[in-house]
Amino acid sequence: MKAKALLLVDITQLLTFRSAALGPRRSASLSDLGIIQDAAVLCLGGKIVSVGTTKDALRDPWLKKNRKKVTEIDCRGRVVLPGFVDSHTHPVFMHPRLVDFEKRISGANYEEIAEAGGGIRSSIDGVRKASKAALTQKVSAVLADLAAHGTTTVEAKSGYGLNLESELKSLEAIRAAAREWPGTVAPTFLGAHAVPPEYRGRSQEYVDLVCNEMIPAIAKRKLAQFVDVFCDRGAFTAAEAAQIFTAAERHGLAVRAHVGQLSETRLGPLLRYRPASLDHMDYVNDADLPALARSETIATFVPGANYFLGLSKYPDARRFIESGVAVALATDYNPGSSPMLSMPMAMSLACTHMKMSPAEAIAAATINGAWALRVADRKGSIEPGRDADLAVFDVSDYREIPYWFGTNRCAQTIMNGVPSGLFRSEKAIGENARKKTRREDRPQPF
Ligand SMILES: [Zn+2]
């Protein structure tokens, strides 16, 4: 995968998010997209070199001399923005949870789903039995799908192995899939996703295993950048999260947590560990917002989970934004509560159910997602020197990105300077048509 010299020209709207170095976007600055009309972007060696109007680009002396060596992408009638940074996914699992899906629709609760053989238990069994190669293939398919929807950087968690061997296998699968993908993957160890069945009623012993065996082994193999904890009712307590964060710190790993999905947890004790982000945030005490706003911790909303679980309540994004908290959006892609890979869909849900404006939703899905993964010095904005991570959308106004829900308007994604996915081009359609004809030549068994 070689980064090419690329020139995107005649871009109808370019969203730059320039001045990203100033820190995560908060309050009014969350709507500041840094739009350039009729714009151009030049990328060389996987980096963005210049950003300006098409007129400026065509006058550039270097470009005049080297035009033939540069691949040109015509973006007339299109919007170009930083590739999405999906800062929360669980891609290492084998099977969809269809029992959960049907049971929940018919009104079953969590315990009834578990009794019917569903719930996290089924994903744990799937991962423990799977080979590393099979898991790698699953993660690779997810990465390709993400890119097709405009995502160029993704956080990927383990957390369905829940023993040393299967957590290592999961993180190795993430690493193997990431090596084959031109985009960027931030791996996270989520050993504290749930207490595994064999440790039922012995949660402290499991936390000790996470801290004393799993974290050291993962740090030694450099398999993760972050350690995550599911801190909520029925999962791990704030005191257990603190113990895990202390172990993570000792091994040089940054931390993040699932908080406030099912019940309120006070944030003060967690903020002491300077988490990169706190995710879900459906139930948060008002008194915790000022401290959160003063911190560099991002509050990440994952409305796909609220949607898929059929909840009528969504996180109160306006309360966070108006308090000056830096917010991000992510898919929470996982088999139990959010089998969704599309950041535009997450943005659409944020607009319709959380009253975020289209501009705020896009900033939360790009530059603030980059802050949530601590890669904002390279990702999430279109400025000279940043990584060439771009998404080209087949729309002429950025507000259309969350507006057209349930369809994919991403025309092309560029990851570290590598263009891919001419998903809506005539060439791709032509190829499909040819394949179809061939298949019809001789009938195939179902
Ligand atoms: Zn999650």
Quick tags:
single chain; binds zinc ion; 20% strand; eight-stranded parallel beta sheet; 446 residues; alpha/beta; 16 strands; globular
Describe this structure in words.
With 446 residues, this protein is α/β, with parallel strands linked by helices. It contains 18 helices and 16 strands. It has helices at residues 54-59, 61-66, 98-105, 110-115, 120-129, 132-148, 164-179, 203-220, 238-250, 268-271, 289-294, 303-308, 317-322, 343-354, 358-365, 367-372, 400-403, 426-441, and strands spanning 6-15, 35-44, 47-53, 71-74, 79-82, 84-86, 151-157, 184-192, 226-231, 254-259, 277-280, 298-301, 327-329, 390-393, 410-415, 418-420. The protein starts with 5 loop residues before the first strand and ends in a 5-residue tail after the last helix. The structure holds zinc ion (ZN). The site of zinc ion has 5 residues, from loops.
Layout of strands and helices, then pairs:
Blueprint: E1 6-15, E2 35-44, E3 47-53, H1 54-59, H2 61-66, E4 71-74, E5 79-82, E6 84-86, H3 98-105, H4 110-115, H5 120-129, H6 132-148, E7 151-157, H7 164-179, E8 184-192, H8 203-220, E9 226-231, H9 238-250, E10 254-259, H10 268-271, E11 277-280, H11 289-294, E12 298-301, H12 303-308, H13 317-322, E13 327-329, H14 343-354, H15 358-365, H16 367-372, E14 390-393, H17 400-403, E15 410-415, E16 418-420, H18 426-441
Parallel strand pairs: 1-4, 1-5, 6-7, 7-8, 8-9, 9-10, 10-11, 11-12, 12-13
Antiparallel strand pairs: 1-2, 2-3, 5-14, 14-15, 15-16
Helix pairs in contact: 6-7, 7-8, 8-9, 14-15
Zinc ion is lined by residues 88, 90, 258, 332, 334.
